[in-house]
Amino acid sequence: GKQTIQIFARVKPSVRKQQQGIYSIDEDEKLASSLEIVLPRDLADGFVNNKRESYKFKFQRIFDQEAKQEIIFEIIAKPVAESTLAGYNGTIFAYGQTGSGKTFTITGGAERYSDRGIIPRTLSYIFEQLQKDSSKIYTTHISYLEIYNECGYDLLDPRHEASKLEDLPKVTILEDPDQNIHLKNLSLHQATTEEEALNLLFLGDTNRMIAETPMNQASTRSHCIFTVHLSSKEPGSATVRHAKLHLVDLAGSERVSKTGVGGLLLTEAKYINLSLHYLEQVIIALSEKHRTHIPYRNSMMTSVLRDSLGGNCMTTMIATLSLEKRNIDESISTCRFAQRVALIKNEAILNEEIDPRLMIVRLQKEIADLKAELAMVTGEQRTEALTEAELLQLEKLIASFVEDQDPESRLEVGADLRKIHYCFHHFKVNFNVSSGLSHVLPRSNCNKNSSC
Ligand code: ADP
Ligand code: MG
Where is the Kinesin motor domain (predicted)? Predict the structure, then answer.
Protein backbone atom coordinates (compact mmCIF):
# COMPACT_ATOMS: atom_id res chain seq x y z
CA GLY A 1 0.00 0.00 0.00
CA LYS A 2 0.91 3.68 -0.03
CA GLN A 3 3.24 4.82 2.64
CA THR A 4 5.45 7.80 3.16
CA ILE A 5 9.20 7.54 3.16
CA GLN A 6 10.39 6.78 6.65
CA ILE A 7 12.85 9.21 8.10
CA PHE A 8 15.13 8.55 11.05
CA ALA A 9 17.81 10.70 12.65
CA ARG A 10 21.04 9.61 14.26
CA VAL A 11 23.21 11.94 16.30
CA LYS A 12 26.92 11.21 16.18
CA PRO A 13 28.77 11.00 19.52
CA SER A 14 30.45 14.29 20.27
CA VAL A 15 34.15 14.07 20.93
CA ARG A 16 34.60 17.54 22.45
CA LYS A 17 31.85 17.91 25.00
CA GLN A 18 32.33 21.65 25.41
CA GLN A 19 31.71 22.08 21.69
CA GLN A 20 28.38 20.34 21.98
CA GLY A 21 25.43 22.25 20.59
CA ILE A 22 22.15 22.51 22.45
CA TYR A 23 19.46 20.07 21.45
CA SER A 24 16.79 17.91 22.97
CA ILE A 25 14.89 14.84 21.85
CA ASP A 26 11.24 14.43 22.70
CA GLU A 27 10.11 10.82 22.51
CA ASP A 28 6.73 11.45 24.10
CA GLU A 29 4.75 11.89 20.96
CA LYS A 30 2.95 8.77 19.87
CA LEU A 31 3.75 8.48 16.20
CA ALA A 32 6.90 10.49 15.87
CA SER A 33 9.78 11.80 17.91
CA SER A 34 10.90 15.34 17.64
CA LEU A 35 14.30 16.91 17.71
CA GLU A 36 14.70 20.44 18.90
CA ILE A 37 17.88 22.25 17.98
CA VAL A 38 18.62 25.51 19.71
CA LEU A 39 20.66 28.01 17.79
CA PRO A 40 22.14 30.72 19.98
CA ARG A 41 21.68 34.12 18.34
CA ASP A 42 25.31 35.05 18.83
CA LEU A 43 26.31 32.11 16.71
CA ALA A 44 23.84 32.95 14.00
CA ASP A 45 24.40 36.65 13.67
CA GLY A 46 27.92 37.15 14.84
CA PHE A 47 26.97 39.29 17.84
CA VAL A 48 25.84 38.44 21.32
CA ASN A 49 22.13 38.27 21.69
CA ASN A 50 20.24 36.52 24.43
CA LYS A 51 17.33 35.66 22.21
CA ARG A 52 17.59 32.06 21.13
CA GLU A 53 16.13 30.57 18.04
CA SER A 54 14.91 27.04 18.12
CA TYR A 55 14.06 24.60 15.35
CA LYS A 56 11.90 21.56 15.73
CA PHE A 57 11.91 18.56 13.40
CA LYS A 58 9.83 15.41 13.44
CA PHE A 59 11.26 11.99 12.71
CA GLN A 60 9.95 8.46 12.91
CA ARG A 61 12.52 7.96 15.59
CA ILE A 62 15.68 9.71 16.73
CA PHE A 63 18.77 7.85 17.86
CA ASP A 64 20.90 9.81 20.27
CA GLN A 65 24.68 9.64 20.64
CA GLU A 66 24.81 6.40 22.62
CA ALA A 67 22.66 4.36 20.19
CA LYS A 68 24.45 1.17 19.17
CA GLN A 69 24.69 -0.32 15.68
CA GLU A 70 22.48 -3.22 16.70
CA ILE A 71 19.43 -1.10 17.46
CA ILE A 72 19.98 0.90 14.26
CA PHE A 73 19.81 -2.36 12.35
CA GLU A 74 16.83 -3.71 14.28
CA ILE A 75 14.68 -0.60 13.99
CA ILE A 76 15.72 0.84 10.63
CA ALA A 77 17.14 -1.88 8.39
CA LYS A 78 15.42 -5.09 9.44
CA PRO A 79 11.92 -4.05 8.32
CA VAL A 80 13.29 -3.05 4.91
CA ALA A 81 15.22 -6.34 4.61
CA GLU A 82 12.02 -8.19 5.50
CA SER A 83 10.07 -6.44 2.76
CA THR A 84 12.84 -7.26 0.29
CA LEU A 85 12.54 -10.91 1.29
CA ALA A 86 8.81 -10.62 0.57
CA GLY A 87 9.55 -9.37 -2.96
CA TYR A 88 9.45 -5.56 -2.65
CA ASN A 89 12.22 -3.16 -3.58
CA GLY A 90 13.84 -1.32 -0.72
CA THR A 91 16.27 1.55 -0.23
CA ILE A 92 18.02 2.88 2.81
CA PHE A 93 20.06 5.99 2.32
CA ALA A 94 22.22 7.94 4.71
CA TYR A 95 22.22 11.70 4.20
CA GLY A 96 24.36 14.18 6.10
CA GLN A 97 27.46 16.31 6.05
CA THR A 98 30.93 14.78 5.82
CA GLY A 99 31.96 13.31 9.16
CA SER A 100 28.43 12.94 10.50
CA GLY A 101 28.48 9.12 10.45
CA LYS A 102 27.01 8.03 7.10
CA THR A 103 29.67 5.43 6.36
CA PHE A 104 29.75 4.32 10.00
CA THR A 105 26.00 3.76 9.86
CA ILE A 106 25.80 2.08 6.44
CA THR A 107 29.03 0.04 6.39
CA GLY A 108 30.32 0.29 9.95
CA GLY A 109 33.54 0.95 11.77
CA ALA A 110 36.60 -1.20 11.22
CA GLU A 111 37.80 -1.37 14.81
CA ARG A 112 35.27 -3.58 16.54
CA TYR A 113 33.07 -6.41 15.36
CA SER A 114 30.19 -4.76 17.22
CA ASP A 115 30.71 -1.66 15.06
CA ARG A 116 29.67 -3.42 11.88
CA GLY A 117 26.95 -1.44 10.20
CA ILE A 118 23.77 -1.95 8.24
CA ILE A 119 25.27 -3.74 5.20
CA PRO A 120 26.98 -6.66 6.97
CA ARG A 121 24.11 -7.06 9.45
CA THR A 122 21.57 -7.05 6.64
CA LEU A 123 23.53 -9.67 4.68
CA SER A 124 23.74 -11.80 7.76
CA TYR A 125 20.01 -11.47 8.39
CA ILE A 126 19.03 -12.18 4.78
CA PHE A 127 21.10 -15.36 4.50
CA GLU A 128 19.83 -16.54 7.86
CA GLN A 129 16.25 -16.10 6.64
CA LEU A 130 16.96 -17.78 3.30
CA GLN A 131 18.32 -20.84 5.08
CA LYS A 132 15.23 -21.08 7.24
CA ASP A 133 12.83 -20.88 4.32
CA SER A 134 12.87 -24.09 2.31
CA SER A 135 9.53 -23.31 0.64
CA LYS A 136 11.23 -21.15 -1.99
CA ILE A 137 14.28 -21.21 -4.19
CA TYR A 138 16.32 -18.03 -3.73
CA THR A 139 19.11 -16.53 -5.78
CA THR A 140 21.19 -13.64 -4.46
CA HIS A 141 23.41 -11.31 -6.44
CA ILE A 142 25.46 -8.36 -5.26
CA SER A 143 26.54 -5.19 -7.03
CA TYR A 144 28.46 -2.21 -5.71
CA LEU A 145 28.49 1.08 -7.61
CA GLU A 146 30.33 4.31 -6.90
CA ILE A 147 29.17 7.53 -8.55
CA TYR A 148 31.72 10.30 -8.71
CA ASN A 149 31.44 13.46 -10.82
CA GLU A 150 28.42 12.02 -12.62
CA CYS A 151 30.36 8.91 -13.65
CA GLY A 152 29.61 5.44 -12.38
CA TYR A 153 32.36 2.97 -11.43
CA ASP A 154 32.05 -0.75 -10.75
CA LEU A 155 33.62 -1.41 -7.34
CA LEU A 156 33.41 -5.19 -7.81
CA ASP A 157 35.46 -5.50 -10.94
CA PRO A 158 37.48 -8.68 -10.43
CA ARG A 159 40.04 -7.91 -13.14
CA HIS A 160 41.55 -4.81 -11.64
CA GLU A 161 43.68 -3.88 -8.74
CA ALA A 162 42.55 -0.31 -8.93
CA SER A 163 44.83 2.46 -7.82
CA LYS A 164 42.56 5.21 -9.05
CA LEU A 165 38.82 5.33 -9.36
CA GLU A 166 39.30 5.98 -13.07
CA ASP A 167 40.94 2.54 -13.40
CA LEU A 168 37.66 0.86 -12.59
CA PRO A 169 35.19 0.01 -15.36
CA LYS A 170 32.93 2.94 -16.20
CA VAL A 171 29.27 2.22 -15.68
CA THR A 172 26.79 3.89 -17.98
CA ILE A 173 23.04 4.16 -18.03
CA LEU A 174 20.87 2.69 -20.74
CA GLU A 175 17.19 3.25 -20.96
CA ASP A 176 15.03 0.75 -22.85
CA PRO A 177 11.85 1.69 -24.78
CA ASP A 178 9.79 0.95 -21.66
CA GLN A 179 11.89 3.51 -19.82
CA ASN A 180 13.50 0.88 -17.64
CA ILE A 181 16.99 1.73 -16.49
CA HIS A 182 19.85 -0.67 -17.19
CA LEU A 183 23.37 -0.21 -15.90
CA LYS A 184 25.90 -1.19 -18.48
CA ASN A 185 29.19 -2.56 -17.10
CA LEU A 186 27.98 -2.95 -13.54
CA SER A 187 28.90 -6.51 -12.62
CA LEU A 188 26.50 -8.70 -10.70
CA HIS A 189 28.04 -11.38 -8.52
CA GLN A 190 26.17 -14.33 -7.21
CA ALA A 191 26.58 -14.94 -3.48
CA THR A 192 25.37 -18.24 -2.11
CA THR A 193 26.50 -17.67 1.48
CA GLU A 194 26.88 -14.79 3.89
CA GLU A 195 30.65 -15.19 3.67
CA GLU A 196 30.67 -14.82 -0.12
CA ALA A 197 28.53 -11.69 0.17
CA LEU A 198 30.80 -10.23 2.87
CA ASN A 199 33.84 -10.90 0.70
CA LEU A 200 32.21 -8.88 -2.07
CA LEU A 201 31.54 -6.03 0.35
CA PHE A 202 35.18 -6.22 1.43
CA LEU A 203 36.43 -6.18 -2.18
CA GLY A 204 34.27 -3.15 -2.95
CA ASP A 205 35.31 -1.28 0.18
CA THR A 206 38.97 -2.00 -0.58
CA ASN A 207 38.55 -0.56 -4.07
CA ARG A 208 36.72 2.37 -2.53
CA MET A 209 39.57 3.11 -0.13
CA ILE A 210 42.38 2.62 -2.64
CA ALA A 211 40.71 5.00 -5.05
CA GLU A 212 40.65 7.66 -2.38
CA THR A 213 43.65 9.98 -2.19
CA PRO A 214 44.04 13.34 -0.47
CA MET A 215 43.59 15.09 -3.82
CA ASN A 216 40.57 13.05 -4.64
CA GLN A 217 38.62 12.54 -1.46
CA ALA A 218 36.23 10.25 -3.20
CA SER A 219 34.58 9.10 0.01
CA THR A 220 33.18 12.53 0.82
CA ARG A 221 32.42 13.43 -2.75
CA SER A 222 30.89 10.31 -4.17
CA HIS A 223 27.80 8.22 -3.66
CA CYS A 224 28.13 4.50 -3.04
CA ILE A 225 25.28 2.14 -3.73
CA PHE A 226 25.53 -1.42 -2.44
CA THR A 227 22.71 -3.50 -3.91
CA VAL A 228 21.39 -6.92 -2.97
CA HIS A 229 19.40 -8.44 -5.85
CA LEU A 230 17.14 -11.19 -4.61
CA SER A 231 14.98 -13.45 -6.71
CA SER A 232 12.67 -16.11 -5.37
CA LYS A 233 10.47 -18.80 -6.80
CA GLU A 234 8.33 -21.55 -5.36
CA PRO A 235 9.38 -24.96 -6.67
CA GLY A 236 7.34 -25.80 -9.78
CA SER A 237 5.87 -22.32 -10.04
CA ALA A 238 6.53 -20.19 -13.10
CA THR A 239 6.40 -16.94 -11.16
CA VAL A 240 9.69 -15.35 -10.17
CA ARG A 241 9.85 -12.44 -7.74
CA HIS A 242 12.64 -9.94 -8.06
CA ALA A 243 13.55 -7.49 -5.37
CA LYS A 244 16.42 -5.08 -4.98
CA LEU A 245 17.72 -3.65 -1.75
CA HIS A 246 19.86 -0.52 -2.19
CA LEU A 247 22.03 0.54 0.73
CA VAL A 248 23.23 4.01 -0.13
CA ASP A 249 26.03 6.06 1.36
CA LEU A 250 25.51 9.52 -0.16
CA ALA A 251 28.13 12.19 -0.74
CA GLY A 252 28.55 14.79 1.99
CA SER A 253 25.68 17.25 1.97
CA GLU A 254 27.75 20.31 2.97
CA ARG A 255 27.37 23.32 0.77
CA VAL A 256 30.00 24.57 -1.66
CA SER A 257 30.72 27.83 0.14
CA LYS A 258 32.07 25.80 3.06
CA THR A 259 34.38 23.80 0.86
CA GLY A 260 36.07 27.04 -0.13
CA VAL A 261 38.38 25.60 -2.73
CA GLY A 262 39.05 26.30 -6.35
CA GLY A 263 39.92 24.33 -9.45
CA LEU A 264 39.25 20.64 -9.63
CA LEU A 265 37.87 20.40 -6.11
CA LEU A 266 35.34 23.09 -6.87
CA THR A 267 34.13 21.17 -9.91
CA GLU A 268 33.76 18.13 -7.69
CA ALA A 269 31.94 20.09 -5.06
CA LYS A 270 29.66 21.50 -7.70
CA TYR A 271 28.91 18.01 -8.95
CA ILE A 272 28.13 16.57 -5.51
CA ASN A 273 25.94 19.45 -4.68
CA LEU A 274 24.31 19.29 -8.05
CA SER A 275 23.50 15.62 -7.69
CA LEU A 276 22.12 16.09 -4.18
CA HIS A 277 20.26 19.10 -5.50
CA TYR A 278 18.73 16.92 -8.23
CA LEU A 279 17.91 14.30 -5.64
CA GLU A 280 16.09 16.98 -3.72
CA GLN A 281 14.29 18.18 -6.85
CA VAL A 282 13.11 14.65 -7.60
CA ILE A 283 11.97 14.34 -4.02
CA ILE A 284 10.10 17.62 -4.12
CA ALA A 285 8.49 16.70 -7.45
CA LEU A 286 7.38 13.39 -5.99
CA SER A 287 5.81 15.09 -3.01
CA GLU A 288 3.74 17.45 -5.16
CA LYS A 289 0.46 15.74 -5.84
CA HIS A 290 -0.22 16.83 -9.38
CA ARG A 291 3.25 16.67 -10.84
CA THR A 292 3.48 14.26 -13.73
CA HIS A 293 7.06 14.89 -14.76
CA ILE A 294 9.70 13.77 -12.30
CA PRO A 295 13.20 14.93 -13.31
CA TYR A 296 14.98 11.59 -12.75
CA ARG A 297 17.18 11.98 -15.80
CA ASN A 298 19.05 15.01 -14.48
CA SER A 299 21.70 13.02 -12.67
CA MET A 300 23.10 9.53 -12.55
CA MET A 301 22.14 9.14 -8.89
CA THR A 302 18.48 9.86 -9.47
CA SER A 303 18.44 7.66 -12.59
CA VAL A 304 19.87 4.72 -10.65
CA LEU A 305 17.53 5.22 -7.71
CA ARG A 306 14.57 5.89 -9.96
CA ASP A 307 12.57 2.82 -8.98
CA SER A 308 13.67 3.31 -5.40
CA LEU A 309 12.52 6.81 -4.64
CA GLY A 310 9.05 7.14 -6.01
CA GLY A 311 6.67 4.35 -6.72
CA ASN A 312 7.69 0.82 -6.39
CA CYS A 313 9.74 0.85 -3.21
CA MET A 314 10.05 0.93 0.54
CA THR A 315 12.34 3.85 1.18
CA THR A 316 14.04 4.87 4.37
CA MET A 317 16.33 7.79 5.01
CA ILE A 318 18.71 8.19 7.90
CA ALA A 319 19.69 11.77 8.56
CA THR A 320 23.11 11.65 10.20
CA LEU A 321 23.77 14.66 12.39
CA SER A 322 26.83 16.06 14.04
CA LEU A 323 25.46 18.46 16.63
CA GLU A 324 28.61 20.25 17.60
CA LYS A 325 28.19 24.02 17.52
CA ARG A 326 30.09 24.56 14.30
CA ASN A 327 27.95 21.95 12.54
CA ILE A 328 24.59 23.18 13.73
CA ASP A 329 23.69 24.99 10.52
CA GLU A 330 24.51 21.97 8.35
CA SER A 331 22.52 19.78 10.72
CA ILE A 332 19.52 22.07 10.38
CA SER A 333 19.75 21.88 6.62
CA THR A 334 19.99 18.06 6.82
CA CYS A 335 16.85 18.00 8.99
CA ARG A 336 15.02 20.27 6.56
CA PHE A 337 15.89 17.96 3.71
CA ALA A 338 14.55 15.03 5.74
CA GLN A 339 11.27 16.85 6.36
CA ARG A 340 10.79 17.28 2.63
CA VAL A 341 11.63 13.62 2.02
CA ALA A 342 8.99 12.60 4.54
CA LEU A 343 6.27 14.10 2.35
CA ILE A 344 6.74 11.54 -0.41
CA LYS A 345 4.24 8.74 -0.55
CA ASN A 346 5.48 5.52 -2.04
CA GLU A 347 3.50 2.66 -3.35
CA ALA A 348 5.31 -0.62 -2.93
CA ILE A 349 4.29 -3.32 -5.36
CA LEU A 350 5.52 -6.86 -5.84
CA ASN A 351 7.89 -7.42 -8.74
CA GLU A 352 6.74 -10.64 -10.27
CA GLU A 353 7.70 -12.13 -13.57
CA ILE A 354 7.15 -15.44 -15.30
CA ASP A 355 10.11 -17.75 -15.79
CA PRO A 356 10.08 -18.40 -19.58
CA ARG A 357 11.20 -22.05 -19.32
CA LEU A 358 8.46 -22.93 -16.89
CA MET A 359 6.01 -20.95 -18.94
CA ILE A 360 6.87 -23.06 -22.00
CA VAL A 361 6.17 -26.28 -20.08
CA ARG A 362 2.86 -24.87 -18.92
CA LEU A 363 1.89 -23.73 -22.42
CA GLN A 364 2.88 -27.06 -23.97
CA LYS A 365 0.53 -28.84 -21.60
CA GLU A 366 -2.19 -26.35 -22.41
CA ILE A 367 -1.71 -26.91 -26.15
CA ALA A 368 -1.92 -30.69 -25.70
CA ASP A 369 -5.13 -30.30 -23.67
CA LEU A 370 -6.66 -27.96 -26.24
CA LYS A 371 -5.73 -30.26 -29.13
CA ALA A 372 -7.40 -33.15 -27.33
CA GLU A 373 -10.49 -31.09 -26.66
CA LEU A 374 -10.63 -29.90 -30.27
CA ALA A 375 -10.35 -33.46 -31.57
CA MET A 376 -13.19 -34.44 -29.26
CA VAL A 377 -15.45 -31.59 -30.30
CA THR A 378 -14.84 -31.83 -34.04
CA GLY A 379 -15.09 -35.61 -33.87
CA GLU A 380 -11.82 -35.84 -35.70
CA GLN A 381 -10.05 -39.02 -34.74
CA ARG A 382 -6.54 -38.85 -33.43
CA THR A 383 -4.80 -41.76 -34.99
CA GLU A 384 -1.27 -41.56 -33.61
CA ALA A 385 -0.68 -44.05 -30.80
CA LEU A 386 -0.22 -42.88 -27.24
CA THR A 387 3.44 -42.54 -26.41
CA GLU A 388 5.26 -44.65 -23.85
CA ALA A 389 5.33 -41.70 -21.49
CA GLU A 390 1.63 -40.99 -21.93
CA LEU A 391 0.77 -44.62 -21.23
CA LEU A 392 2.94 -44.64 -18.13
CA GLN A 393 1.24 -41.51 -16.85
CA LEU A 394 -2.16 -42.99 -17.58
CA GLU A 395 -1.30 -46.17 -15.64
CA LYS A 396 -0.31 -44.03 -12.69
CA LEU A 397 -3.57 -42.08 -12.84
CA ILE A 398 -5.62 -45.27 -12.98
CA ALA A 399 -3.67 -46.86 -10.11
CA SER A 400 -4.17 -43.88 -7.84
CA PHE A 401 -7.86 -43.68 -8.83
CA VAL A 402 -8.40 -47.33 -8.00
CA GLU A 403 -6.64 -46.95 -4.64
CA ASP A 404 -8.46 -43.78 -3.69
CA GLN A 405 -11.05 -44.59 -0.98
CA ASP A 406 -12.93 -41.34 -1.55
CA PRO A 407 -16.23 -42.16 -3.32
CA GLU A 408 -16.18 -38.67 -4.86
CA SER A 409 -12.81 -39.13 -6.51
CA ARG A 410 -12.65 -38.83 -10.29
CA LEU A 411 -10.35 -40.12 -12.94
CA GLU A 412 -9.37 -37.13 -15.03
CA VAL A 413 -7.64 -38.06 -18.27
CA GLY A 414 -8.56 -35.04 -20.37
CA ALA A 415 -10.69 -34.86 -23.50
CA ASP A 416 -8.67 -37.41 -25.42
CA LEU A 417 -10.70 -40.34 -26.77
CA ARG A 418 -7.61 -42.51 -27.08
CA LYS A 419 -7.01 -42.17 -23.35
CA ILE A 420 -10.66 -42.74 -22.52
CA HIS A 421 -10.68 -45.89 -24.67
CA TYR A 422 -7.52 -47.02 -22.97
CA CYS A 423 -9.22 -46.63 -19.58
CA PHE A 424 -12.24 -48.60 -20.67
CA HIS A 425 -9.97 -51.29 -21.98
CA HIS A 426 -8.00 -51.38 -18.77
CA PHE A 427 -11.11 -51.72 -16.61
CA LYS A 428 -12.60 -54.35 -18.91
CA VAL A 429 -9.52 -56.50 -18.67
CA ASN A 430 -9.34 -56.16 -14.90
CA PHE A 431 -13.04 -56.75 -14.42
CA ASN A 432 -12.92 -59.92 -16.47
CA VAL A 433 -9.86 -61.18 -14.67
CA SER A 434 -11.26 -60.56 -11.20
CA SER A 435 -14.80 -61.86 -11.90
CA GLY A 436 -13.63 -64.73 -14.01
CA LEU A 437 -16.32 -63.79 -16.55
CA SER A 438 -14.53 -63.44 -19.76
CA HIS A 439 -17.78 -63.48 -21.77
CA VAL A 440 -19.59 -60.64 -19.91
CA LEU A 441 -18.84 -57.06 -20.80
CA PRO A 442 -17.93 -54.94 -17.83
CA ARG A 443 -20.33 -52.17 -16.83
CA SER A 444 -18.61 -48.91 -16.69
CA ASN A 445 -19.74 -45.68 -15.08
CA CYS A 446 -17.50 -43.66 -17.32
CA ASN A 447 -19.33 -40.84 -18.99
CA LYS A 448 -18.54 -38.96 -22.13
CA ASN A 449 -16.35 -36.43 -20.40
CA SER A 450 -14.04 -39.18 -19.36
CA SER A 451 -14.56 -38.43 -15.69
CA CYS A 452 -15.39 -41.67 -14.00
P1 ADP B 1 30.73 10.26 6.92
O2 ADP B 1 30.72 8.96 6.19
O3 ADP B 1 29.38 10.85 7.11
O4 ADP B 1 31.67 11.24 6.34
P5 ADP B 1 31.95 8.68 8.98
O6 ADP B 1 30.98 7.57 9.07
O7 ADP B 1 33.21 8.41 8.26
O8 ADP B 1 31.26 9.98 8.41
O9 ADP B 1 32.23 9.16 10.48
C10 ADP B 1 33.27 10.06 10.81
C11 ADP B 1 34.02 9.50 12.04
O12 ADP B 1 33.16 9.41 13.15
C13 ADP B 1 34.55 8.11 11.80
O14 ADP B 1 35.80 7.99 12.44
C15 ADP B 1 33.53 7.23 12.48
O16 ADP B 1 34.09 6.01 12.93
C17 ADP B 1 33.07 8.08 13.64
N18 ADP B 1 31.65 7.82 13.96
C19 ADP B 1 30.59 8.22 13.25
N20 ADP B 1 29.44 7.85 13.83
C21 ADP B 1 29.78 7.19 14.94
C22 ADP B 1 29.04 6.55 15.99
N23 ADP B 1 27.70 6.51 15.98
N24 ADP B 1 29.72 5.97 17.00
C25 ADP B 1 31.06 5.99 17.01
N26 ADP B 1 31.82 6.57 16.05
C27 ADP B 1 31.21 7.17 15.03
MG1 MG C 1 31.75 8.47 4.45
Answer: 4-344
